[in-house]
Design a protein that fits this description.
It contains six helices and 13 strands. The protein is an alpha+beta fold. It folds into two domains: about 250 residues, q2cbj1_9rhob like domain (Jelly Rolls); about 60 residues. The strands form two sheets. Strands 1, 2, 3, 4, 6, 10, 12 and 13 form an eight-stranded antiparallel sheet that branches. It has a five-stranded antiparallel sheet with strand order 8-5-11-7-9, with no helix packed on it. About 35% of the residues are buried.
């Protein structure tokens, strides 16, 4: 049975209390198979999309992970994540379902526009996987002007304790962000808020989804089985959210994009002009370098000629 297009009052009460709820099945078995195949085809380079990036899973420490790349140098299924999937037709078709509109409306307001922070596959390859430490999804590390509050996590393979399912601390979202920077928790916060007796493993059947508050403390371990553990996850935000790095808004899922403030519009014009001035200055500097090279070559030629004349004069007998 598929999840309803709305959540009941009881479901919202459980979400408010625990910071997560199981939404039930949201994708049929046939659809799950297609999504798994698309993710693997992207990793192998069978399907190419310049708007999508991916990261290799090294099986090592989380802090030692390599950055994202447009494509791997060699064909491999040992990917950790594939991001930018809003630009893929198959994955993108999942993002505008009425259920997500209903959830975002409850969180951000029924008439609020809703934007997308990210849409990606998270994978733990067979007999591998990077340990994701206790963390919260928010804070300054995300470089947005307001914190995203809601994430949907859809299992494309059944998630179990053996293959590194997500583990959470129920109710921990009510603590708020434990640091302004966000992301990985410090040792003292782990000791205080994540004792073993409070940890809950979220085992999820393939095609089923979990709704999570971004401040919910969570982690995941390695995959000790011979099959991958893949999940499609996306984060919905208040549509007014902007990047603190660029001032840009994010892709809209629902509603109209916010109007650009006049000062932001002027800043963008000024920035474009400055970039053009920089490009002109770089071109001029390169032309000076080229002219200088020609001049240095002329000087070298003249010096060689002068020395040859000096040598010729030195060889002449005295008058």
């Amino acid at each position: 049975m598929f999840a309803s297009s709305t959540l009941s009052a009881q479901q919202w009460a459980a979400y408010d209390s625990e910071g997560f709820i199981d939404l039930g099945r949201v994708i049929a078995a046939e659809g799950v198979t297609k999504l798994r195949q698309r993710a693997d085809d992207l990793s192998l380079g069978i399907v190419e999309n310049p708007q999508i990036e991916m990261q290799l899973d090294t099986g090592g420490p989380y802090d030692a992970l390599a950055g994202v790349v447009p494509q791997f140098d060699q064909k491999t299924l040992l990917y950790r994540k594939i991001q930018g999937l809003q630009h893929d037709a198959l994955f993108g078709s999942i993002l505008r379902r009425p259920l997500w509109r209903s959830i975002a409306g409850k969180v951000y307001g029924p008439h609020a526009s809703v934007s997308l922070f990210r849409a990606m596959i998270m994978n733990k390859p067979a007999n591998q996987g990077t340990i994701l430490p206790w963390h919260q999804d928010g804070g300054e590390v995300w470089a947005v002007d307001r914190d995203p509050l809601v994430t949907v996590w859809i299992a494309l393979d059944s998630a179990t304790v053996a293959n590194g399912c997500v583990e959470v601390i129920p109710g921990s979202h009510r603590l708020g962000l434990l640091s302004a920077y966000g992301s990985t928790l410090g040792d003292l916060d782990v000791q205080q808020h994540c004792p073993p007796e409070r940890v809950q493993q979220l085992e999820v059947e393939e095609g089923h989804a979990i709704l999570m508050h971004n401040w919910l403390i969570h982690r995941s371990g390695v995959n000790r089985t011979g099959s991958p553990r893949r999940a499609f996850t996306f984060c919905m935000m208040d549509g007014r959210t902007t990047s603190t790095l660029t001032g840009d808004h994010y892709p809209m899922l629902f509603g109209a994009p916010p109007a650009v403030e006049p000062y932001v519009h002027q800043l963008r014009i000024d920035l474009a002009a400055l970039r053009e001035q920089r490009a002109d200055a770089e071109r001029y500097a390169l032309s000076l370098r080229a002219a200088n090279s020609v001049l240095e070559e002329s000087i070298a030629t003249a010096t060689t000629y002068a020395r040859s004349l000096e040598g010729e004069l030195a060889r002449r007998p005295p008058a």
